[in-house]
DNA sequence: CAGTATCCGTCCGGATACTG
DNA sequence: CAGTATCCGGACGGATACTG
């Protein structure tokens, strides 16, 4: 029989519960663009245009939205230099650097296990197909 | 000036590129339910119904879909016991246990930093409001 | 018990146009 | 340069009904 592990080990928060605030934090973090933006900012400060070019495939809207969410959550700093043309620099806060270690680990894991995943998927799809046509 | 770090350090994969296969893997992993399902399975094998009850708020459809995706990617085992009523047990594969360490870290981080995030968000929202009404 | 099938509203995310 | 505003299709995800 399954028993729930000790949830109070770190403050009583439990992301498995739908109304726990940690579920919302998890929602924020488990996002492709969030992972990549934070990963891009780990080496250092970047401007908006630099981020847009680095995050291949992201639209202006999604980059703006992601950066706002991260700024609001206190993971990213936004520094505006009111020059003409305007210059905006983004960087990680200490909290952002903290979670950045985890975001990087996820991204690197994905990069390192492409073949494992692809092989498994091909095998799975082949089995599904052969079940439909047993010769 | 920003320079791209050495991408070839682990096989040439780069999730920042839109067509890199690792981007698809990242897409699979950066998902709330994926994180929670893998986290729930780390302590050991669980049945479908047990998972549904543990992952508060998940629907049958999303649980099935998530489990299929993970099974197809080779992260989860599905063991069917053709009894009546049927019994299906889910567990992590070695690959699943491997990424499970990272998924758990993300979830625990979320649980541990609720207050930091909430404080930052309240502060951000307060500033946005005062800018609209400078008295 | 562990699904599959279907319907349907929401909102994610892309494309485009415009601005300080 | 770094946004904002708007439109829109399609996927995501929930609710419900049915099944081996």
Automatic annotation (TrEMBL), chains A, B:
Q: Keyword set for this entry? A: DNA-binding, Transcription, Transcription regulation
Stored InterPro entries: HTH_HxlR (IPR002577), WH-like_DNA-bd_sf (IPR036388), WH_DNA-bd_sf (IPR036390)
- Taking every annotated instance into account, which residue ranges of this chain make up the domain HTH hxlR-type? 20-118
**Keyword Transcription regulation appears in the UniProt entry:** yes
List the Gene3D superfamilies hit by this protein, alphabetically. Answer: Winged helix-like DNA-binding domain superfamily/Winged helix DNA-binding domain
**Under which name does UniProt file this protein?**
Helix-turn-helix domain-containing protein
Q: Which organism is it from?
A: Saccharothrix mutabilis subsp. mutabilis
């Amino acid at each position: 029989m399954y028993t729930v592990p000790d949830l109070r080990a770190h403050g009583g928060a439990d992301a498995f519960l739908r109304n726990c605030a940690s579920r919302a934090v998890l929602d924020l973090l488990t996002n492709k663009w969030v992972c990549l933006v934070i990963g891009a900012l780990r080496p250092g400060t970047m401007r908006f245009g630099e981020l847009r070019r680095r995050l291949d495939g992201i639209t202006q809207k999604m980059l703006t939205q992601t950066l706002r969410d991260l700024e609001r959550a206190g993971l990213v700093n936004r520094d505006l230099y009111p020059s003409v043309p305007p210059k905006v620099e983004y960087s990680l806060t200490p909290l952002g650097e903290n979670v950045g270690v985890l975001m990087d680990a996820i991204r690197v894991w994905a990069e390192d296990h492409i073949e494992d995943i692809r092989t498994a998927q091909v095998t799975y799809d082949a089995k599904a197909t052969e079940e439909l046509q047993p010769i």
